[in-house]
Amino acid sequence: MSGSLIAILIAVGVVVILGIYVWATYNSLVTLRVRVDEAWSDITVQLKRRADLIPSLVETVKGYASHEKGVFEAVTAARAETISAQGPAEASVAENHMQQALKSIFAVAEAYPQLQASQNFLQLQGELVDTENKIQASRRFYNGGVREFNTKIQVFPNTIFVRGMGFKEREFFEVDDLASISEPPRIQF
Predict the structure, then answer these.
(1) What are the backbone angles phi and psi of residue 85, rounded to the nearest 5°?
(2) What phi-psi label fits residue 166: left (phi over 0), alpha (psi between -120 and 50 degrees) or beta?
(3) Residue 188 above 50 pLDDT?
(4) Are 139 and 99 in contact (CB under 8 A)?
(5) pLDDT confidence of 161, banded at 50, 70, 90?
(6) Rounded Cα gap, residues 74 and 168, in angstroms
(7) Do 59 and 96 contact (CB within 8 A), yes or no?
(8) Cα–Cα distance between 48 and 53 in angstroms, integer?
(9) Is residue 71 over pLDDT 70?
(10) Domains of the chain and CATH, by start
(11) C-alpha dist (Å) from residue 27 to 23, 34, 173
């Protein structure tokens, strides 16, 4: 074999190896992107579930505390903001407002012993706490997927070429007021 043939074979081998690397990296990034999209979908499902519970909760509390108009308006506004949020940044702001509104409505509920004994209220309260737990779990799953995806994009040598393939880092779902979501709303009777 001549020297030029060996050089050509080496060059072809390097190109094949690089091609396989780019192909494998691209496919793994697509898989991670789909996983992140799926996780975001799970969050939106749980946020929608909670938003669907809010009107029933408001109506139940209204029956006992109809003069607390400001609280009900705040809860309704927070619900609308949650439903219309687009992406993690807007959802984070909406989540903070929703947590504050829910704290207000449960504070009102604490002042009415008859409401606290209402089976309907207790059931709604339990469903809401369960939904809050599911939102937290979905948020952790989403943020874990985002961490993997962003890491894969930012490591060398991927960082050199993946942006050219249309991959961009994703935002984490972080809430502005971490204390407001560190645990589900506490309801003490």
Answers:
(1) -60, 135
(2) left
(3) no
(4) no
(5) confident
(6) 36
(7) no
(8) 9
(9) yes
(10) 3-181 (1.20.1440.20)
(11) 6, 11, 25
Mean pLDDT for the stretch of residues 172-176: 79
pLDDT of residue 187: 45
Q: Which amino acid is at 167?
A: F
Total residue length of the chain = 189
pTM, two decimal places? 0.74
Tokens 């737990």 -> residue = 133
Q: What distance in Å separates the CA atoms of residue 109 and residue 135, rounded to the nearest whole number?
A: 23
CA-to-CA separations, 23 to 107, 110, 155, 165, 169, in angstroms, rounded: 56, 59, 16, 11, 19
Question: Residue 108's Cα: distance from chain center in Å?
Answer: 28
Cα–Cα distance measured from residue 146 to residue 90, given in angstroms and rounded to the nearest whole number: 17
Question: Which letter, b or e, does each residue of 148-182 get, where b requires 16 or more Cβ atoms within 10 Å of its Cβ?
Answer: ebbebbeeeebeeebeeeebeebeebebeeeebbe
Helix axes 87-110, 69-84, angle to 10 degrees: 160
- CA gyration radius, the chain: 25
Contacts of 96 (CB under 8 A, 6+ apart): 175, 176, 177, 180, 181
Give residue-wise pLDDT tens across range 98-119: 888 888 888 877 877 777 777 8
